[in-house]
């Protein structure tokens, strides 16, 4: 009897959260889907005709869509490479005994707490600016021609900035995973004469596999939505050189006021994110049973 | 003998890790230095800046005068703290129920909640923008607080859930036996035991809300703009005033760097939804 009552109470306590999230998810999603089939432009008020797949057709065949897809993949892939490899390196290093471990750890983690607009602006101006930035000044000081990072390598520069922000995240998670590794197993392997490389390859890496997967999946979710770094540095340019899918949807809906087109892009972004999400959810779900 | 070798390798580790750590944190240190220089000094060569120029706090005052730092600071505080506590009020009962009275569908509900977090914001940008425009929530602190509460709700519930699950259920059972009502059970038994977990949840979510830079940039203009948008306003030509940009940046990130210091241990659990502990 008590259980029945508490079950009912439990349901009552969960329902506000469920209803809110349901509303937050269903209503805008339904609207996005609905808008994506309309000819709906905010600066050309009209009767918002139903146009079927027209928006999708134009969005998908627009050359900037292809550019945005490639940029999105390069951005996500590039940042993942840097942060996962760098994160493994940092984690292995930080796990070793050293003086002032706490302070060094905090120094490595600090960039994660810097808001995206700040990190983008300080890298853009104080470091990558060809005239007054540190890199430019060092280059001229050494007699080289300074590099105009955002002019010559716009996407690479953004990958660099975003990697700086996410490397701490990867490091922290991989370090946490590494610390849960059974030390005796490592020592036994060492006694048996296993080289460091073999210990890494056959003991540490398999142990880290799960954490690495989590890092990749979670970062992918966040990186697909990279926005502020692009907005304050390049505005998606030059041309479409740094326009990713998120930025393209922003441009069509909030700058060109094309609600229909923007919504079609939004639906495509949702589909892409879901592909990643399914894998992530499976990993987390498995953990819930354990 | 063995000890001396280990000290040597310890020194070596410290040197390598310290150098890399310094490189990671250097941009933050550098803008801290630039923020204490005059504009003329701030664009000189790095060594000149370091060893051959005076120090001044003028830039901090100039930033406040130019763009009203405190208004944006309070917007950030209200939005991040407000969304976190509002979210907490809804999430604590939900997480409590799922942790202590798990039903057949609890796992599904949890997974579904998580899935809402996977929704790319740009996918719902247009409708949210239009709804906000039509209801007058655009550029309002209330609107932004609600949005941030909703996008962080899954993380809050998940973090609380993983913490609550570590509280032994027998203690709650005992309280119930002793005749504690549901309300006093939550208030006097559960809450004190859950405070550390709740505290880290609060900390992490304030950080996430403070740094959120998609909705804050797209849904605010002048009135409700938090610090993320305040800094973005420096991306125009004024960005070339290095000392002021540095001072503004330091003022925007300092509060969160301090909170982050305290929350680094909980970060992993919160951001991986308990998948890595």
What would you say this structure looks like, in words?
- The complex is a heterodimer of chains A (290) and B (277).
- By secondary structure, chain A is mainly alpha-helical.
- Chain A has one domain (53-289): MetI-like fold (Orthogonal Bundle).
- Chain A has helices at 2-35, 54-61, 63-95, 101-109, 116-127, 134-141, 149-152, 154-179, 183-191, 196-223, 228-233, 245-255, 259-289.
- In chain A, helix 8 packs across helix 10 and helix 12 (245-255) runs antiparallel to helix 13 (259-289).
- The longest helix of chain A is centred in the N-terminal third of the chain and has 34 residues, at 2-35.
- Chain A is globular and about 75 Å long.
- The two termini of chain A are 30 Å apart.
- Chain B has 277 residues and is mainly α.
- Chain B has 2 domains: 2-58, no CATH class; 67-271, MetI-like fold, CATH 1.10.3720.
- Chain B is 76% helix and 0% strand.
- Chain B has 13 helices and no strands.
- In chain B, helix 1 (2-34) crosses helix 13 and helix 6 crosses helix 8.
- The radius of gyration of chain B is 23 Å and the shape is globular.
- The interface between A and B is large, with 106 and 98 residues.
Give a summary of the structure in a few sentences.
The complex is a heterodimer of chains A (290) and B (277). Chain A has 290 residues and is mostly helical. Chain A is 76% helix and 0% strand.
């Amino acid at each position: 009897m008590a259980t029945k009552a508490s079950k009912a109470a439990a349901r009552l306590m969960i329902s506000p959260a469920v209803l809110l999230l349901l509303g937050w998810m269903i209503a805008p999603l339904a609207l996005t889907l609905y808008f994506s089939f309309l000819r709906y432009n905010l600066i050309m008020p009209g009767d918002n005709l139903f146009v079927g797949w027209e928006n999708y057709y134009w969005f998908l065949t627009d050359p900037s869509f292809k550019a945005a897809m490639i940029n999105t993949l390069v951005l996500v892939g590039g940042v993942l490479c840097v942060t996962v490899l760098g994160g493994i390196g940092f984690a292995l290093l930080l796990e070793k005994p050293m003086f002032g471990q706490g302070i060094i750890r905090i120094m490595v983690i600090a960039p994660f707490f810097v808001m995206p607009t700040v990190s983008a602006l300080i890298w853009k101006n104080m470091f990558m600016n060809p005239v007054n930035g540190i890199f430019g000044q060092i280059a001229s000081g050494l007699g080289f021609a300074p590099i105009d990072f955002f002019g010559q390598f716009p996407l690479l520069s953004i990958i660099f900035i975003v990697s700086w922000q996410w490397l701490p995240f990867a490091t922290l998670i991989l370090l946490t995973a590494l610390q849960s590794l059974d030390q005796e197993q490592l020592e036994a392997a060492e006694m048996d004469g296993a080289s460091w490389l073999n210990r890494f390859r056959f003991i540490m890496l398999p142990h880290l596999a799960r954490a690495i997967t989590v890092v990749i999946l979670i970062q992918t979710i966040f990186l697909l939505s990279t926005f502020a770094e692009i907005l304050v540095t390049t505005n998606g340019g030059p041309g479409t050189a740094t326009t990713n899918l998120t930025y393209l949807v922003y441009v069509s809906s909030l700058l060109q006021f094309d609600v229909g087109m923007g919504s079609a892009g939004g639906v495509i972004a949702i589909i892409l994110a879901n592909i990643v999400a399914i894998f992530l959810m499976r990993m987390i779900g498995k953990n819930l049973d354990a | 003998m063995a000890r001396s070798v280990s000290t040597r390798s310890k020194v070596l580790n410290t040197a390598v890790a310290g150098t890399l750590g310094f490189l990671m944190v250097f941009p933050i240190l550098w803008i801290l230095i630039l923020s204490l220089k005059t504009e003329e000094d701030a664009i000189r060569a790095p060594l000149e800046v370091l060893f051959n120029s005076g120090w001044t706090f003028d830039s901090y005052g100039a930033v406040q005068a130019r763009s009203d730092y405190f208004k944006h600071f309070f917007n950030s505080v209200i939005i991040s703290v407000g969304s976190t506590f509002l979210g907490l009020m809804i999430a604590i009962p939900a997480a409590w129920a799922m942790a202590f009275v798990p039903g057949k569908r609890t796992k599904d509900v949890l997974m579904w909640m998580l899935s809402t977090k996977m929704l790319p914001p740009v996918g719902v940008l247009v409708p949210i923008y239009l709804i906000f425009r039509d209801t007058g929530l655009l550029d309002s602190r209330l609107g932004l607080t609600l949005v941030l509460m909703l996008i962080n709700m899954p993380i809050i519930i998940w973090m609380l859930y993983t913490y609550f699950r570590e509280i032994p259920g027998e203690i709650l059972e005992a309280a119930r036996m002793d005749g504690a009502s549901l309300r006093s059970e939550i208030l006097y038994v559960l809450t004190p035991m859950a405070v550390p977990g709740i505290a880290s949840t609060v900390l992490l979510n304030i950080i996430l809300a403070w740094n959120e830079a998609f909705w804050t940039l797209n849904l605010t203009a002048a009135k409700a703009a938090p610090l993320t948008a305040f800094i973005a306003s420096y991306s125009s030509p004024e960005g070339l005033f290095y000392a002021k940009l540095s001072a503004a940046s330091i003022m925007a990130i300092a509060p969160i760097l301090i909170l982050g210091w305290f929350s680094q241990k909980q970060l992993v659990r919160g951001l991986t939804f308990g998948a890595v502990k």
